[in-house]
Amino acid sequence: MIAKPTRKVLNVLKRKGSTWLNAGYEVYLVGGCVRDLILKRTPKDFDVITSAELKEVMKTFSWCEIVGKRFPICHVHMDDEIVEVSSFSTCGRKLERDVSDDFERPAGCDDKDYIRWKNSLRRDFTINGLIFDPYARIVYDYTGGLEDIRQAKVRTVIPASSSFQEDCARILRGIRIAARLGFHFSRETAHFIKNLSFSILRLDKTRLLMEINYMLAYGSAEASLRLLWKFGLLEILLPFQAAYFVHNGFRRRDKRTNMLLSLFSNMDKLLAPDRPCHSSLWVGILAFHKALYEQPRESLVVAAFSLAVHNGGDILEAVNIARMITTSHDVSFHELSERQNLDSQTLTDAVMNLAASVKGALYKMTDEHFVSQAMEGYPQAPYSDLVFIPLGLYLKVCRIFECVREGPEKRFVPKQGIKIDYESLAQGELQEVRHVFARIVFDTVYPLKLDQEDNDV
């Protein structure tokens, strides 16, 4: 189903300049939203392309702005949302070389067909090269995208070697698409993702953070981590987590799970392409797990820590609640040590220690020296000192956990109930992020299936 703001933009452009001789501007949906609609999935967003020039789009809508210098598009503000509108004329000038020179023009191709065909050849993957006319309800497919959807395949439009050298960000987009849809790569595409993996270091850190956030914040983090590991990208982007996989004997095509993957799997259950989280949540989970991996803790310490995070730093309340937990924790995780009979003060001290370790882990994740040492013990591992977490995000993640060490926050009201406010979560509102963090930790340490198994015995 097409979102209402997008439908309004389509209708306005379609009517613009319409006379008895002219049906108005041509308007289509393009890219991933068409693929998702065919798969009956909720698109992350909708991209519109039109025969109108961008300056005509600017005149048509009262609140509209052109963004981007190299590849300009219009951001149309409609019903508190932004709809991206591109023009066929602008897209025709996007690439220095004309990729249509490498392909034979389809037989019986009229002028409109030719414009659509040229545009589809400039897309990254065939399943993103579909063009949908929402009025005639026709999907135009010039690259074999529909067949690749049927085969659950991710394949580049032009040869993969050329495609990834042309735009190395396509490597990360391909991982994200395959993870989100559960698709596999064509043999050629998979080969060059692996062989050209280091080319992603040409991207600036802001772009890398954006691409990684698309992977981890929209409900497909576990699958994304597995694919990044499989294709040798994890040790470049997240070397601490790659070192954890290596240390635990996790093979490239391993079907098993571990605590890191379980944390992100439980996060995925709460998110969706149209219900993402703020990047501070997944960065916080990475730091939390790194602290546990470096020094395993007793399950009640982890429980009390997450409760203290949730309630704004009231450790006394968190410890009292944790001591009442009788549920069995997941003993398969090496990060969780055997349960002991800790008194309240010892448990409190252990929670404070964990909070300090999480902050230390976060610091290491944002320091080039420590990042470069992450995989020193593995001779065949590639060298990476990439730090893409900016200072602002680092400080925002620190705020999630600092209450545990500094004591209860004044006027902080813990969230009641289990319903998630997804708008607040996407904006990184502290109460919501802490609430979701605590849920993820509890679902991982005390999985419901263990309770069910205990009841079945």
TrEMBL record:
One of its GO terms (molecular function) is nucleotide binding. Pfam families: PolyA_pol, PolyA_pol_RNAbd. Residues 27-155 form the Poly A polymerase head domain. CDD domains: NT_ClassII-CCAase. Keywords: Nucleotide-binding, RNA-binding, Transferase. Gene3D superfamilies: Beta Polymerase, domain 2, cca-adding enzyme, domain 2. It comes from the Eukaryota. Residues 182-243 form the tRNA nucleotidyltransferase/poly(A) polymerase RNA and SrmB- binding domain. The keyword Nucleotide-binding applies. The keyword Ribosomal protein does not apply. GO terms for biological process: tRNA 3'-terminal CCA addition. Belongs to the tRNA nucleotidyltransferase/poly(A) polymerase family. PANTHER family: POLYNUCLEOTIDE ADENYLYLTRANSFERASE FAMILY PROTEIN, POLYNUCLEOTIDE ADENYLYLTRANSFERASE FAMILY PROTEIN-RELATED. This is Poly(A) polymerase I. It comes from Morella rubra (Chinese bayberry). The lineage of its organism: Eukaryota, Viridiplantae, Streptophyta, Embryophyta, Tracheophyta.
